[in-house]
């Protein structure tokens, strides 16, 4: 996690951090793009990143998909807001996650599957996977995003303590 200029990420105390993030549910047919969580086998994370001061969740999602996946012609639909409270490596987090949904074309899905992480704003060891939604449901981090996976679901609000 690299702190960039204007990221809405703040240390509130020596062991407490507040973040605003954009997450994207990228769908291609029955599949969703995820990254396996290295610290929690069997768990997955959605692509996305920090919202910058002055950005909406949709604008942040578009910027992150361009920076991380080289995808530039996407149409986003806000899916919901999730407040996540968790502890990681001794730091307590309060994150507000602005979740967006987006369908991608076969061409875009193939380009992401063939993407070299060293050519974009991702850690070089990042593993991107298209996985059936049925295999991801119940295994996404943070918990609570599952209710937002269905493309036709109404806007959701959730709170996750984990």
From TrEMBL:
Its cofactor is Mg(2+). Keywords: Hydrolase. Residues 15-153 form the Nudix hydrolase domain. It comes from the Bacteria. The keyword Hydrolase applies. It holds the Pfam family NUDIX. InterPro entries: NUDIX_hydrolase-like_dom_sf (IPR015797), NUDIX_hydrolase_dom (IPR000086). PANTHER family: GDP-MANNOSE MANNOSYL HYDROLASE, MUTT_NUDIX FAMILY PROTEIN. This is NUDIX domain-containing protein. It comes from Lacticaseibacillus suilingensis.
């Amino acid at each position: 996690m690299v702190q960039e200029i204007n990221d809405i990420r703040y240390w509130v105390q020596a062991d407490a951090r507040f973040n605003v993030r954009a997450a994207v549910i990228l769908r291609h047919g029955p599949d969703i793009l995820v990254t396996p969580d290295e610290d929690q086998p069997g768990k997955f994370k959605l692509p996305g990143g920090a919202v910058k001061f002055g950005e909406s969740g949709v604008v942040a999602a578009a910027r992150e998909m361009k920076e991380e996946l080289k995808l530039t012609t996407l149409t986003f639909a806000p899916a919901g807001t999730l407040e996540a409270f968790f502890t990681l490596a001794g730091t307590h987090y309060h994150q507000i996650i602005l979740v967006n949904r987006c369908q991608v074309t076969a061409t875009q899905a193939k380009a992401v599957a063939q993407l070299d992480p060293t050519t974009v704003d991702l850690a070089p060891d990042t593993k991107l996977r298209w996985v059936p939604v049925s295999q991801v449901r119940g295994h996404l981090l943070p918990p609570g995003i599952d209710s937002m996976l269905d493309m036709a679901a109404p806007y959701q609000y959730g709170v996750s303590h984990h």
